[in-house]
Amino acid sequence: MLEVNQLRLSRQGDEFCYDLTCQPGQVVALLGQSGCGKSTLLAMIAGFETASGVLLWQGRSILELPVAKRPVSSLFQQHNLFEHLTVQQNLALGINGRLKLNRHEQAHIAKVAEQLGISQWLASYPGALSGGQIQRAALARALLRQRPILLLDEPFSALDPVLRADCLTLVRNLASEHQLAVLLVTHQFSDACAIADEVAFIEQGRVIQQCPPQELQTNPANAQVAQFLAIADKGVFPSKDCS
Ligand SMILES: Nc1ncnc2c1ncn2[C@@H]1O[C@H](COP(=O)(O)OP(=O)(O)OP(=O)(O)O)[C@@H](O)[C@H]1O
Fold it and tell me: How large is the ipTM?
């Protein structure tokens, strides 16, 4: 389990202090107003920001580990692939940080590429791919890294609604199949309802409520949560809205 306990950061007068858990196979959606600190929490877990407090994976502290040694893969809205490398080469970097692969590693890439529907694009450069194909390739690379914690910072928000729904469903299935602990930043409550086991609502650098999405609606921690839900975007899964 990923355990975040009083994980703290002070940055330019802003104070952040997080508590959160995420089990293997679980998707936890991070919700909250713009600027509340969703990306900052991911950056602290990934090691891009130096934090103090408790950060455990399967009972062991990962707080002192450098970025490259943490059991974490991250996916952002953009800049997930190297433009000067083919998709196959990008995926190869995910496996071992080198472009040269043995037969077993090549087979592993072929399998993951097929699972994510990008086999026909392996020889292409990212510039020739659509946004959805690029993010699928980036997701494939993250999977090939075989890190059990997957941090997703709105990676699908620039995609059209149908593609976004496809990619989110894919994430849901991959989390279950590979027993990944997934933290997903989203602005859409209905996305959280559709694919997340739990929601962590963040306000001013703190998780003020972590619970199943439905409970956030029926029992919001405070007026800010209720107000956020009242004006939340309907997102791409309107039929699966929690209401
Ligand atoms: N590198 C940085 N240096 C200083 N302040 C930063 C930095 N990155 C973000 N901030 C500030 O920290 C606060 C939290 O930002 P963060 O990006 O974590 O919020 P967020 O909830 O992810 O926002 P959004 O939903 O708009 O992406 C904001 O006030 C932001 O302006």
Answer: 0.96
